[in-house]
Every structure is written in C-alpha cells, then in structure tokens.
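User: I'm new to structure prediction. If I give you an amino acid sequence, what do you actually give back? Let's try with this one:
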Amino acid sequence: MAWKPGTYYMYIMSSSSGATYIGMTNNLMRRVQEHRDEGEDGYCGKWFIDKLVYFETYSSPMEAITREKQIKKWVRKKKLALISESNPKWEDITHLL
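Assistant: Good question. You get back a string of structure tokens that encode the predicted 3D arrangement of the chain. For your 97 residues, that looks like this:
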C-alpha cells in the first residue's frame, strides 16, 4: 500500500487520571473519535482515555512514525513534560483541529 501525500499526525491522548496513549494517523479527528468509541475491550476504553492533549504534524508518514516511536521510548516523566509544556492543564484540544 502506497502512502498518499498529505498531513500526518503523532498524537497523545489522555484520561482524567493521567493514563496516556501515543499514536500516529493521517486523519486525527477520525482517530480521536475511534478511540472515544472504543469499548472496554480496547486499551483506550479500558483506561477511559478520551482527551486529545497533544499532537504534532508531519508531511510524511515515516516522520510521524519515527516521532511516535521516539516518544514511546521516553520515560513517563519526559512524556508528561512534553504535554505540560504546551497544554499545562491537560485540556482536550480537539477544538484546535
């Protein structure tokens, strides 16, 4: 499958308790909704992860995937600092899309 040119996203979603999910997509609004609709069988449903708290945009899927993998390797403290730097209250930022 060939990737089409466009915008790609590395994103972080969170629950009210601070559980996080890091992912990559080419349609962030759709993907956020899929996470919100996920039942208890999925990771986001199980941990009540329903807020988009951080995202970055890229012009290629490989850049977004590389960044996703990089952040997933970070210690939790560093991930939380990344989010807090741009979103100190950890508010849902879906309205920015």
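You can read the tokens as a compact description of the fold. Here is one thing that stands out. The first helix runs from residue 28 to 37.
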